[in-house]
Write a structure and sequence with these properties.
With 318 residues, this protein is α/β, with parallel strands linked by helices. The strands form 2 sheets. It has a 6-stranded parallel sheet, sandwiched between helices. Strands 7-8 form a two-stranded parallel sheet. It contains 17 helices and 8 strands. Helix 9 runs parallel beside helix 11. The chain has 3 domains: 150 residues, 3-Layer(aba) Sandwich (Rossmann fold), CATH 3.40.50.300; 63 residues, Helicase, Ruva Protein, domain 3; 86 residues, Zinc Finger, Delta Prime, domain 3.
């Protein structure tokens, strides 16, 4: 089956249209745990005690224990939902199911039974396997590639996903974060998971003991802004998005980009793109770039203001 991002899976959960089997993998344990917990939303809150099961596979270290664990899993997935259209069964540390540590006749029989379950899942049950490191060469993983939806946890898709990521990490630290504070951290760190993790860790340390993190807390610890895309400013001008173009310009300047380099990008945009995008705007755009170049060389104004004026003019010419 398909490989989906965590964001795409959340859309399935919200729409109430989940697949039969999911394998959540990746190094981001917090993301895996948060996503696995969200599957419970497929069942009305008052009915979750009857229709949501969690199985821990961490202690399935022998063939006999594995056989018992697989039997319990099959029984849970084959049980009919009670007053609900769907059941959810989550298996934590599922790598112990998929690749037993010890081989034995009991383990082999258990794996055969598990394969039969994967080949013929119950249509009224969603099975969620939460695994750490999985051998992608193994027979069981190759079967899941055919029968399950594989979800790699750890990648961030867009700004909204990054802000949700920040909120999840802060919640895992026992606190909450205001929406403007989460946005500020994303503005500064971009979509880089490593830098976002560092920003959140610093915030939790700085506000140790607080139950809610504010934008002032985030501003106190956030590092310098990070660019998501070196060409986001010129792309925004092409798309006639002056507000986004100015935001990206501010990110570039805050990150230490020389004004001359930014002016060079804008000059390239005018020379390479404007003749096709807006032929009538080429001459005014060239004049604006030339004037800004002269003003920068003569120190005729603050570079940030001169470049902001140029960006606005180019958006208008575009």
């Amino acid at each position: 089956m398909a490989a989906l991002t965590p964001g795409a899976v959340r859309k399935q959960i919200a729409a109430g249209t989940p697949d039969a089997i999911y394998l959540l993998t990746g190094e981001d344990d917090v993301e895996k745990s948060a996503l696995a917990a969200e599957f419970a939303e497929l069942v009305d809150e008052g009915l979750r005690a009857f229709n949501v099961d969690r199985i821990h596979a961490g202690d399935l270290t022998t063939g006999d224990k594995l056989a018992d664990g697989v039997a319990s899993l099959i029984a849970a997935t084959r049980t009919l939902p009670m007053m609900s259209p769907r059941r959810v069964v989550t298996v934590l540390q599922a790598e112990n199911l998929l690749l037993p540590k010890r081989e034995s006749e009991a383990a082999t029989r258990a794996l055969d039974a598990l394969e039969s379950l994967f080949e013929d899942p119950d249509p009224q049950t969603t099975l969620v396997l939460v695994a750490g490191s999985v051998d992608k060469r193994s027979r069981m993983f190759k079967l899941l590639q055919k029968r399950a939806t594989i979800v790699e946890c750890g990648a961030i898709e867009d700004r909204a996903d990054a802000e949700r990521w920040v909120r999840t990490r802060v919640a895992a630290g026992g606190a909450e974060i205001d929406a403007p504070a989460a946005r500020l951290l994303v503005d500064r760190a971009g979509l880089d998971v490593r830098r976002l993790r560092s920003e959140v860790e610093r915030l939790l340390l700085y506000a140790l003991g607080q139950k809610r993190m504010t934008v002032d807390d985030a501003r106190a610890v956030a590092g310098p802004a990070s660019l998501v895309d070196d060409w986001a400013m010129t792309n925004a001008i092409e798309a006639r998005q002056p507000a986004e173009a100015l935001r990206q310009l501010a990110l570039m300047l805050d990150a230490g980009a020389p004004p001359e380099k930014i002016l060079g990008q804008l000059g390239w945009l005018v020379r390479a793109k404007f003749p096709q995008l807006k032929p009538a705007g080429v001459r005014p755009a060239i004049d604006a770039v030339f004037r800004t170049d002269q003003d920068l060389k003569r120190s005729a104004g603050e570079p940030r203001i001169l470049l902001e004026r140029l960006v606005v003019e180019l958006c208008a010419a575009r």
